[in-house]
Amino acid sequence: QNQRGAIINNVAFPTADAEFVAEYTVAMSNPSVFGAGDGFNVMFFDGTQPLPPNLGGRGGAFSYTPHGTLGDAGIRYGVFEVAFDIWGGHGSDPNNGTVSCPGIGANVVTVRGSGDGVAAPSAAYPCLTTAAMPFDLSIHGRANPAKLRVAIITEGAQKLLSVQMDDGINGFQTVIDRYDISAAVVLPAALRIGFAGTSGGAFQAQNEIRDMVISMPGKQYWRAFSFDTSAVPACATELRVVSQVDVTIMDDTQTKPGGDNDIEHQLMLVNAVTGQVYDTSNIKSAPLKIENTY
Description:
The chain is mainly β. Helices cover about 5% and strands about 40% of the residues. The chain contains two helices and 16 strands. It has helices at about 90, 180-185, and strands at about 5-10, 15, 20-30, 40-45, 80-85, 110, 125-130, 145-155, 160-165, 170-180, 190-200, 205-215, 240-245, 265-270, 275-285, 290-294. The strands form four sheets. Strands 1, 2, 4, 5, 6, 7 and 11 form a seven-stranded antiparallel sheet that branches. Strands 10-9-8-3-12 form a five-stranded antiparallel sheet. The chain has a two-stranded antiparallel ribbon with strand order 13-16. A hairpin with a 2-residue loop joins strand 8 and strand 9.
């Protein structure tokens, strides 16, 4: 009862290079009479600082925020976290001593912001965004585990956070889609990642994490090529345009639903003077060559 545990990577990485997809399998087992709980999270810390000397609060604090009733301070050097809140206490429990997230309950994903070891009550570790889980995570045990995916990608100056969940039946479903975490918190020059889980009154429940894989996200580079031709003879009846590309696509799930339905290669015939588009050829797979005859 009222336990906490975490693993924190002691190697920091530059924030400018912070692009990754963390995917892992979770299972809930041996729930108590109070049900399964409390949950687990993915935490991000200021990588320019040393490792946090202590974890944050127990129970619904998820080792990240403070817990006022238990007298636990929040974790040091916290930048933001993504919490899979099965019990519902991380976002709304006033015992934690942090500002509650509006209108949430059990089985929600909560993103909280920065805090640096403060005690409750405090406005630190603010609620940034929440979303309901697409299914009840607590019923997924070892026989039918669920999969979670947390991704950060870079677009221009933005760091976009996405969260997806897979119940083993319907595939990955997007819970949080491209949330601009760089606009919500001040990102340090380097980040450090960690994973934690806690229990409160639901102390018999076991939250198990396995099969962790952290990989680089796929990138999409768009480049427009223009070409000039000699004047087409008045007697010409056809113009054949050939485009050739050599690509390798390992996985096209990215962080958006639809994945492989995205257009990979597009051939357009455009009048460079007027901007008029005469024809477009969209290819959803990745051939070596496409061609159109006009």
